[in-house]
Amino acid sequence: MKKYLIALALVLALIGTPVLAAQDNTALINSLMQQVEQLMMVLRTLLAQQTGQNSSSANLSDTLIVTKPEANQTIELPSKIIGKAKNVFEGWGNAQLFDSNGQKLDEVFIMPGGDNGCDYGVGYCPFSVSIGKPWSVSPTSQTGYILFTESEAKGDTPKSFKLPVKLNVGIQNQQVKVFYVAPNDNGLSGKKIGCGDSIVPLTREISKTSAPLTKAIELLLSDKRQNIGESGLTNSLYKSNLLINRISISNGLAQIYLSGTLLVGGTCDDPRIIAQIKETALQFSGVNQVKFYVNGREYTGDLRG
Predict the structure, then answer these.
(1) Do both 200 and 216 map to the same domain?
(2) Which of 142, 74, 141, 85 is closest to 108 using CA atoms?
(3) Is residue 58 part of a domain?
(4) Does one domain contain both 216 and 125?
(5) What percentage of the chain carries pLDDT values higher than 90?
(6) 55 phi, psi to nearest 5 deg
(7) d(CA 268, CA 236)
(8) 20 to 30 A Cα–Cα from 302, which one of 90, 152, 202, 276?
(9) 11 within a domain of the structure (yes/no)
(10) Which of 123, 151, 167 is the last residue of a domain?
């Protein structure tokens, strides 16, 4: 950081000499002061990068300064983006709000000077835009970022800058059921399956998703417990290591393609495994039949591995 300060001091000293000699030349003085402002902007950015601290404004480029929100600030819904920018090409550019999973939540255009516009070559003009209203897509995380993309003339590569933020929103959740076995229950607690057992659902809460069936199967396959707490339920898949390759649904038939190792402990594990996977899939509307495959072969209770 010391070398940056020395370089800046030398530049300012060189600039200061003609300024003092040309005190009556207003245009020259203004031009030089704009250069000083740009150099200071670069220095503030370097300081923030070196120290890991955020200043009260984000100097994202030599054409954009954002004063609100600050980096890593928690934003409400909707939120104002306030700052100043230069008219680089029919305005400044746009701002897009993303959650940390890369899902775009909103997009707005930044026009320096607002309705009055901002002429080319006049320097910075203030702007204020609202972003994040309403959520057309529910956020999947409580952190995210604003992506600022500067407008460029046709053929040029646009410049982009990220400003990290926190989202003051409650993540929408949904519930799914994951099915386990009640040994020797004989249909008292749930649907009766082979060996005199019952298949019983437990409710799990997940972040809202467009693929709840996949998430429910993932929860089942990733559960490595043999005994499920004090519920008395057991998990016949606890020793297996299976991953989802893909799931398709067509005309009410869900086909689940798995790969990995399926370990079966005995004859009664066959109907238990089939019931756990099929009943977990059958809970979803539009699914009335289920087939699942392990390493390319349909599982009907005759696979061992």
Answers:
(1) yes
(2) 85
(3) no
(4) no
(5) 47
(6) -80, 175
(7) 9
(8) 202
(9) yes
(10) 167
